[in-house]
């Protein structure tokens, strides 16, 4: 499915605005997890790579697509894992366990 | 056939919504973990939907690649918290690698008949992807200290770098106009690969927060460009979100250092300051032993700890937590003042202190804590230097003049834990150390804090 230039630009523009508004509200406290989370979400590029490797239109596309899947999957798995690990550590003060 | 296409589009739509919600929930530590879950569900839906795509004829390579990627990803998700900056840089490199590979494959599948719009976004995708790939690898290398952290500069460096970038863009323009010149395509990848390396060579450790953010932004933009090429709205949105996030962080970091992007990328800060450091002379400082420091801290009502990269290097965060516990038990009010560029990436100090089990409501940002210093008995600085330098506020001739700092010099007593009298990253003298109310605590941060804790707990028992 192909998008035309104008539709793509609209999507990009609106997403960028939403991104600015939402991310401006993220506390600096969580800027490290923010970076690892956006990084994991960015690895959604894996869908393009899956289609390339799976369609097998050419050997080159298959090889490059496979490398791309490996790279993106490691970001997805590693990114979500470490973000959750970091967020688990943030605790409010109050009665603390001994 | 039409129906399956529609289902796939709806799956992507749901994933898009979940991605936006994921970032929205990240705004507070209370809802943040729900954000991660939303992101994971969105990702799983999108991948499953794609796997059912009718065009896919062979699953072998996909399966192998997914498993291999997961095998690499798990250890990358389990690194120590001190290694998070280099892990982040590495993951920017992986993201960029993925985008560059897909862009290259798409070009050769379509060449020589690539419409101009398609070729433009494809060029953007691979140029940004390639320079982010090597740039991030270099940044990771510097952070892991397998590469020298010191900025390396030479004459005409900026000219060489800008020249490289100009040539790459020139090639892109030719390809847009004449896409049948396929032999040019490898150069359009190779030159940005070299540029990525050259771009990071002159950048020093303390500029890493800005550079990592900038690379984050590039990685996002290249993914968005890939979305344009593939006609994937989901990818455009994810890339735009990542790009926006990296951009906001870069702006924050630059502001916190009172510098522009161009200054970070073309300034090579450390090099410029050599002359300023020459003015250093032997002036008297007051130093104190752990016993004396413990006495003052234990008698204080309000203490603000200012951590810096030195705390991370000395792995002192757990000792700092013990100090926090010991002082809190005695009724001392302990807070932490965190400068936006403390550490090697945005939010670095917060993660280290949270890992050491310090409650996040005790971690205050610069704007929130600066008003408190006048009522603070002791400001304890651990491994931070330039972010506490009052010259940034007062001395117009100082190279860091104008940079927002933590006003630790307004506290009644200032204590600085430091290895020796060496100047900070930028090689700038810190007049704070020569003030009458400043006590220098010379030693390794972890051992020194440990000794203080022993003293405090000892006479408490």
How can the largest sheet of chain A be summarized? none
H/E element sequence of chain B:
HHHHHHHHHHHHHEHHEHEHEHEEH
From the structure provided, what is the oligomeric state, counting identical versus distinct chains?
heterodimer
Low-confidence spans of chain A:
none
Count of alpha and pi helical runs of chain B: 19
Helix content of chain B: 55-70%
Rg of chain A, alpha carbons: 19 Å
Distance between the termini of chain B: 77 Å
Overall pLDDT confidence of chain A: 89
What structural class do you assign from the helix and strand content of chain B?
alpha/beta
The overall average pLDDT of chain B, rounded, is 87
Largest interface: A-B, 84 and 112 residues
Q: What is the number of strand segments of chain A?
A: 0
Q: Which strand-content bin applies to the residues of chain A?
A: under 5%
Count of all domains of chain B: 2
Q: What is the helix/strand order of chain A?
A: HHHH
Rg calculated over all Cα atoms of chain B: 25 Å
Biggest sheet features of chain B: 6 strands, parallel
Helix content of chain A: over 70%
Shape of chain A: flat
Instruction: Let me know the number of strands of chain B.
Output: 6
Question: Short description, anyone?
Answer:
Chain A is an all-alpha fold and 98 residues long. Chain A has 4 helices and no strands. The longest helix of chain A has 31 residues, at 59-89.
């Amino acid at each position: 499915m192909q998008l035309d230039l104008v539709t793509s630009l609209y999507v990009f523009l609106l997403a960028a605005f939403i991104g600015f508004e939402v991310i401006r509200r993220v506390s600096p406290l969580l800027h490290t997890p923010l970076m690892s989370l956006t990084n994991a979400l960015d690895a959604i590029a894996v869908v393009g790579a899956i289609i390339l490797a799976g369609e097998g239109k050419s050997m080159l596309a298959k090889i490059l697509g496979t490398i791309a899947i490996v790279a993106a999957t490691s970001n997805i798995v590693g990114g979500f894992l470490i973000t959750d690990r970091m967020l688990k550590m943030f605790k409010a003060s109050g009665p603390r366990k001994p | 056939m039409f129906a399956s296409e529609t289902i796939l589009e709806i799956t992507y739509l749901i994933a898009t919504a979940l991605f936006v919600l994921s970032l929205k929930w990240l705004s507070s530590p209370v809802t943040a973990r729900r954000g991660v879950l939303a992101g994971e569900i969105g990702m799983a839906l999108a991948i499953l939907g794609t796997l059912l795509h009718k065009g896919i004829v062979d699953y072998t390579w996909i399966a192998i690649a997914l498993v291999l990627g997961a095998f690499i990803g798990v250890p990358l998700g389990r690194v120590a918290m001190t290694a998070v900056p280099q892990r982040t840089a590495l993951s920017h490199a992986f993201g960029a690698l993925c985008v560059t590979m897909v862009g290259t494959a798409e070009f050769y599948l379509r060449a020589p008949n690539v419409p101009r719009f398609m070729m433009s976004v494809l060029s953007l995708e691979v140029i940004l992807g390639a320079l982010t790939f090597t740039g991030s690898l270099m940044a990771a290398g510097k952070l892991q200290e397998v590469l020298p952290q010191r900025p390396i500069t030479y004459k005409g460096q900026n000219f060489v770098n800008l020249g490289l970038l100009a040539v790459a863009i020139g090639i892109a323009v030719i390809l847009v106009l004449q896409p049948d010149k396929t032999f040019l395509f490898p150069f359009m990848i190779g030159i940005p690969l070299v540029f990525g390396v050259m771009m990071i060579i002159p950048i020093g450790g303390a500029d890493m927060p800005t550079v990592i953010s900038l690379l984050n932004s590039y990685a996002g933009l290249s993914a968005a460009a890939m979305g344009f090429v593939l006609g994937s709205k989901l990818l455009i949105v994810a890339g735009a979100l990542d790009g926006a996030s990296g951009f906001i962080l870069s702006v924050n970091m630059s502001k916190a250092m009172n510098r522009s992007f161009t200054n970070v990328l073309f300034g090579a800060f450390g090099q410029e300051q050599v002359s300023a450091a020459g003015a250093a002379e032997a002036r008297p400082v007051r130093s104190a032993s752990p016993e004396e420091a413990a006495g003052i801290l234990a008698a204080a009502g309000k203490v603000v700890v200012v951590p810096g990269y030195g705390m991370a290097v000395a792995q002192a965060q757990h000792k700092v937590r013990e100090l926090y516990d010991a002082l809190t038990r005695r009724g001392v009010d302990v807070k932490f003042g965190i400068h936006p560029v403390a550490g090697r990436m945005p939010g670095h100090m917060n993660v280290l202190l949270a890992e050491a089990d310090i409650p996040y409501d005790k971690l205050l940002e610069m704007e929130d804590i600066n008003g408190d210093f006048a009522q603070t008995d002791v400001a304890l600085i651990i491994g931070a230097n330039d972010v506490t330098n009052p010259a940034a506020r007062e001395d117009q001739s100082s190279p860091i003049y104008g940079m927002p700092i933590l006003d630790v010099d307004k506290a009644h007593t200032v204590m600085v834990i430091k290895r020796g009298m060496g100047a900070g990253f930028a090689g700038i003298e810190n007049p704070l150390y020569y003030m009458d109310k400043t006590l220098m605590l010379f030693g390794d941060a972890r051992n020194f804090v440990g000794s203080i804790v022993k003293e405090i707990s000892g006479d408490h028992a």
